[in-house]
Design brief:
This protein has about 270 residues and is an alpha+beta fold. It is about 35% helix and about 40% strand. It has five helices and nine strands. The strands form two sheets. Strands 2, 3, 4, 5, 6, 7 and 8 form a seven-stranded antiparallel β-sheet that branches. It has a two-stranded parallel ribbon with strand order 1-9. The radius of gyration is 29 Å and the shape is elongated. The chain starts with a helix and ends with a strand. It holds the Pfam family JHBP. Belongs to the TO family. One of its GO terms (biological process) is circadian rhythm. One of its GO terms (cellular component) is extracellular space.
């Protein structure tokens, strides 16, 4: 009799434990995992955006495809994002100053028209989208620039002051853009703002032509052209940090124009 009671109690305990376990499982299943975008409305995905997912194990490849997919739309411009065409690309002003080394000059370039940026290719991406970091490796076969210039300073030991029209050709352009974004919320919707953009580049070929209009003497312009083209590699290397900073400043503004208008949920899915 005693053994039967013990067996009955054991059976009840086992049954109770099973029910408790089942209840725990059921309770857990009633509390689904949520993501930040669940509280946001659904948005239509524009044709120029290929969305990527944070959980995609091949997210670097996805981001690379997304930027290359965007190219023909950037070439024509995207009015709804207030993005002008990048082919040709017009830049109202680029200023740069270099106070060290053999080339110590202050230069201002205005009314710049650039032909060739629309042929860019993103060849490699390294991303950490949890922290909104992107490294983009780009190449551009060639870029031609034309516009106005003002320059003053010293090149080697020679003082220089000139202004006028300029033309430049750069071939086999390779660049790295390092993007650091931050998340912003407006009306409960998440956007990414670019807080920092660093640019570095290298050039395979370079040629310059200037038409000096300050000194009223074609000899000055001819001498400058000869000097620039004979020493193009050294001059570019000296001016690269200043040029990189100026280019980054311009494109940071360009990219923020777009990113601050497109909710993160549109281009970066949480799952």
């Amino acid at each position: 009799m005693k053994g039967r009671i013990q067996c009955t109690m054991l059976l009840l305990l086992v049954t109770y434990g099973y029910l408790v376990s089942a209840q725990v499982v059921i309770t857990a299943s009633e509390d689904p995992v949520t993501s930040p975008g669940d509280s946001e409305p659904d948005f239509k995905t524009p044709e120029y955006i290929l969305p990527c997912a944070r959980t995609d194990p091949a997210i670097d490849s996805c981001v690379q495809k997304a930027f290359n997919h965007l190219k023909p739309y950037l070439v024509e411009g995207i009015p709804e994002l207030d993005l002008p065409p990048i082919e040709p690309l017009t830049i109202p002003e680029l200023g740069m100053e270099n106070g060290q080394g053999a080339v110590r000059i202050k230069a201002l370039f205005t009314n710049i028209t650039a032909f060739g940026p629309g042929n860019y290719s993103v060849n490699k991406v390294r991303s950490d989208l949890k922290n909104l970091r992107l490294d983009l490796h780009l190449t551009i076969p060639k870029i031609e620039l034309q516009g106005r210039y003002e320059v003053a300073g010293n090149v080697l030991l020679f003082p220089i002051q000139s202004q006028g029209d300029f033309w430049a050709f750069f071939g086999d352009v390779a660049a790295i853009a390092r993007v650091q974004g931050i998340e912003e919320k407006r009306d409960g919707i998440r956007y990414m703002k670019i807080a920092r953009l660093l640019v570095d580049f290298s050039l395979g070929r370079a040629r310059f032509r200037v038409v000096d209009q300050l000194n009223g003497n074609n000899v000055i312009g001819q001498a400058m052209n000869q000097f620039l083209n004979q020493n193009a590699k050294e001059i570019i290397e000296e001016m690269r940090p200043a040029a990189s900073a100026s280019i980054a400043k311009h494109f940071m503004s360009f990219l923020n124009t777009a990113f601050t208008k497109v909710p993160m949920k549109v281009w970066l899915h949480d799952t």
